[in-house]
Amino acid sequence: MRPLKIAAAIVAAVALPQCALADTLTLTGVVRDFTPSHPDFEHACCGMDFDIVTATLGADGRPVYAPGSAGSTWSTYGQDAFNQWFRDVPGVNLSASKSIVLDNGIAGPGGTYTYHSGSFFPIDGELFGDYAYGHNYHFTYQIHGTFGYKPGAGQVFDFAGDDDVWVYFDKKLAINLGGVHGETGASVNLDTFFAGLGGRAEGNYDFDFFFAERHTTGSNLKIETSLTIVAVPEPETYAMLLAGLGVLAARRRRAA
Prior knowledge:
Blueprint: H1 3-14, E1 24-33, E2 47-48, H2 79-82, E3 94-104, E4 113-117, E5 139-149, E6 156-162, E7 165-169, E8 172-176, E9 179-180, E10 184-189, H3 190-195, E11 203-213, E12 220-225, E13 229-231, H4 235-255
Antiparallel strand pairs: 1-3, 1-5, 2-9, 3-4, 4-12, 5-11, 5-13, 6-10, 6-12, 7-8, 7-11
Helix pairs in contact: 1-4
């Protein structure tokens, strides 16, 4: 099978109804690694910073820096620096595709999917390499996907972790835990959240998750949700898939 056909098959498999993944839910996103020389990493500490992003995602699906081009917040150093967090920028960051697997505590469809790591360091020994205490700090993690919403079903999304976390449903900010801080949590009931936006009909909506680990020494990430989220590869992730498949195809040709 040619690389492009293989990639298309992978994307098609990702888009299958999540009922086929009753026991686990795999969310794949992009981790971007930074060095502590970046102004927004390792420099500011400590506390919540609720003024970093706006309430609506930008047209490119990334958070919009709330202070604008002329502003800053106590833990961030301007729009140009923040815009590098969730974009591939040569010479500034390195990226890799990484997945987390949420387990369903109930056999078969239904239940709550859970992921919990009290030591969330997905790129230890990779990209720019470890910084201190045997870990690679100073990274962001971005997951984009869709989920099925059913009004009145009481669907929930709970998060706890550090540092910054922003979660958007239908491109609207639902969880705002910006800042360099210890483990902090928030919970969203989708019925309540969508009611505050004028309501939403049953259907599929965008899910966007943005995480940043900006300061030593801890890194925690916990997700509990009854949502069935189907991760959709961002352009960076898809490019990584194609590159990897191209290498695989080249190796097979040489071996033939």
